């Protein structure tokens, strides 16, 4: 694994590559979209002779304020081979989803990521688990003076989302320095965080309310859990993109160490989101169940009965608590 890729090395990686694809993880979040669009805009502006495409699953409506998002491709062309596939914010090939095929067919690959679970699966890897976000890492690959306002907006969104707007402990002095440089590009940071992070639709708030109301306290009230089923999504006429932020709201509960949020992806298959403070390393819990993530924010997918899944998760979490 290479935990330093200099601006010069990045230029060498790009050298001679006429066609480049950028892809990120399934159910793209703010950092995934921010890093992909930021890099896409930067390369479009300064390497306009290269063919460049971004492949991502559908994104939350609020992210369309970021330039270039309308051109994101949601399907892959048949028999396409890119000279270079750049994989961003994605810890393993499975998480790349539909664009994994392009990654596998590409002449060479490069991965930039901050997931502790990343096994360095690309040809060249720039993986820094301590980094706040992939967007922060992508910033370091760029020549600062060549970053446009539009690129800065995308990267700022990514950093703001993965740090909970500069709140989580992954926010380092260097994160703040990068954010400051992005602010100097003249971006409206308030507008970006308000529209893409804080603002919720009425439907989103209703589901959040339901998840909070029906949450359960477990492990001597040190753990909180809640679920949203397919039936709930149908009732509220919502989709899984409307569930962003619920797990962190659960985690905000006083004296709670770990929050577990499950939502049903397909009948009896649940996506699990875990959040914790410094006491429990939830990336260990999610990796035990085949997922990944970070110490304080991780996830996985599991099939079965909701209560069995919850029991298994709670069992693994309890192993890291010496007083329950
Ligand atoms: P979230 O709970 O917001 O979906 O994800 C929290 C963190 O865990 C993110 O960094 C995300 O990429 C990672 N993560 C979530 N689900 C999975 C999963 O099923 N597999 C892996 N490898 N990582 C996941
Ligand atoms: Mn990220």
Keywords:
alpha/beta; globular; 2 domains; 6-stranded mixed sheet; 324 residues; 5-stranded parallel sheet; 11 strands; binds manganese (II) ion; inorganic pyrophosphatase (n-terminal core); binds guanosine-5'-monophosphate; Diaminopimelate Epimerase, Chain A, domain 1
Task: Write up this protein.
The protein is an alpha/beta fold and 324 residues long. The protein has helices at 7-14, 30-46, 100-105, 134-141, 149-162, 173-183, 189-198, 202-213, 230-235, 246-251, 282-288, 306-318, and strands at 19-24, 51-55, 84-88, 108-113, 124-127, 216-218, 223-228, 258-266, 269-276, 292-293, 297-303. The protein has two domains: 7-198, inorganic pyrophosphatase (n-terminal core) (Alpha-Beta Complex); 202-318, Diaminopimelate Epimerase, Chain A, domain 1 (Roll), CATH 3.10.310. The chain has twelve helices and eleven strands. The strands form two sheets. The protein has a six-stranded mixed β-sheet, sandwiched between helices. Strands 2-1-3-4-5 form a five-stranded parallel β-sheet. A hairpin with a 4-residue loop joins strand 6 and strand 7 (223-228). It is globular, with a radius of gyration of 19 Å. Bound molecules: guanosine-5'-monophosphate and manganese (II) ion. Manganese (II) ion binds next to loops.
